[in-house]
Write a structure and sequence with these properties.
This protein has 179 residues and is mainly beta. Helix content is 0%, strand content 55%. The protein has no helices and 13 strands.
């Protein structure tokens, strides 16, 4: 067979941008983001109120206006008890990133794509590892979602369904050619 040619990773690999440590915050937001760029948020030791769910909204403008509908999402949980959730009718108020987990630490990542492309929906995929709400069973939630409007988005905000959010959020970017 053919030998794979490996390209220089510096031309499109993930580049560290910043580390945010939240403590009892209502949200973690990234604004005035560059177009033609992909983003990854790696989360460590994130805690929410017991049984709260992590949510993501997408914004546009200098002082961002965050969309309050037109989201669609799907998630699936791998644990001793599987759970699937979906908001698949394009009328959701946010992208839910996980099913409910207890107040113990959770970790994972979110990738955001096509944020600044007015011809494509902004879409995300995510993975969270934690404990199922109330049962202390280890679980992994995989999710995907999108904002179903074609506009130039430049902001991302992570919130919670109730209470506050704490933990570390490492933010990365990479160049994404817009063909």
């Amino acid at each position: 067979g053919a030998v794979c040619a490996f390209e220089d990773a510096s031309a499109g690999g993930w580049q560290f941008v910043s580390l945010t440590t939240a403590s009892g915050a209502s949200s973690v937001a990234y604004e005035s983001l560059a177009v033609d760029t992909g983003f990854r948020i790696v989360m460590r030791g994130v805690t929410l109120s017991n049984d709260a769910r992590m949510k993501l909204t997408i914004g546009t403008g200098g002082t961002p206006t965050y969309a309050s509908d037109a989201y669609q999402y799907q998630s699936i949980r791998g644990s001793s008890t599987s759970v699937s959730t979906a908001g698949s009718d394009s009328s959701q108020a946010a992208i839910l990133l996980d099913a409910s987990m207890d107040a113990n630490d959770r970790s994972g990542f979110i990738e955001i794509n096509d944020l600044g492309d007015a011809n494509e929906f902004t879409w995300i995929n995510s993975m969270m590892i934690g404990q199922a709400g109330g049962s202390s069973v280890e679980c992994t939630d995989w999710g995907s979602g999108r904002l179903e409007t074609t506009q130039i988005d430049n902001a991302i905000k992570i919130t919670t369904s109730s209470g506050t959010i704490s933990g570390e959020f490492a933010f990365y970017s990479r160049s994404m050619p817009n063909a």
